Amino acid sequence: MATRTLLLLDGTGLFYRSFFAIKGLSAHGGQPTNAVFGFIRALHQMEELWKPTHLAVAWDGGSPEERLALLPEYKAQRAPMPDALKVQYEPIREYLDCAGVPLIRLDRQEADDVLATLAHWAEREGSDVLIASSDKDLCQLVTDRTGIIATGKDAPRVGPEGVFEMTGVHPHQVVEWLALTGDTADNIPGVAGLGPKTAAKLLGQFGSLAAMWERMDEIESGRLREKLLAGRALVEKNLALVRLRDDLDCVPGWSALEFKPELPGRLRSFYERMEFHSLVKNFDQPELF
Asked: Domain 171-242 falls in which CATH fold?
């Protein structure tokens, strides 16, 4: 059997990026369509470039209770979704339904945890995995079989070496690296005065947090030792915040995830209603073979 390739999309992230990347696109009735069009175009580009055999879109369903219990301010700094973006969610759902692409959203569960669950399941099943996202949290999922890609025509696949180039740590160290540095995107504070380069250097020297705590006397800077010791409880809490869950009940099975090339019918009607004329034209082009 040929190797399966499962393409997993961080749908919420792509939705936001498409909204801010494309300005002023709307249907004649005034319905904003920029996020929907950008989402579809990016998905088409990834399908053409990576030729996935299976596909799914993960969507944020809210912050989990266990993370909020550890940090009530978790993601609290994020602004509400703009109204012009909010009204485009249902059209995105309709498009994915018409295209036969599973959209997986669990109440009070984050898209990253859905992606982690699906990626680890697919790897255990012997599949290659591509995760389309710009979220550095997902670097903890990277292996020889699971890579991260950005959206776009020339997006490279980031494997273990690429994660090291970006962060200074290996994928299995990303959770501990984030625990030290915190994550401003999620409103998670890190050790005061400790930057990502110093955190990466520490993990490179000791290999793990456990070894670092045991061998603190090997850290030459007394000031750095003080910072780490003062922030140890915070780091331990952060480990539970940044480590992704991979045990959610969200795996639909291979048949439901199978890639289905777009066909006329419901999709054409959807494109016409959204006034995506360039996408309608794709159905009118004759097949050469």
From this structure: DNA polymerase; domain 1 (1.10.150)
Q: 253-275, pLDDT tens digit by residue?
A: 999 999 988 777 889 999 999 99
Q: What's the whole-model pTM score?
A: 0.95
Domain range annotation of the chain: 5-163+245-284, 171-242
CA distance 185 to 208: 24
Residue 182 CB partners (closer than 8 Å, separation 6+): 188, 189, 190, 191, 238
pLDDT of residue 264: 75
Tokens 């793990």, located at residue: 208
Provide mean pLDDT across the span 25-38. 95
Rg for the chain (alpha carbons), in Å?
21
Q: What percent of the chain has pLDDT over 90?
A: 90
pLDDT at 286: 54
The dotted CATH code for 5-163+245-284 is 3.40.50.1010
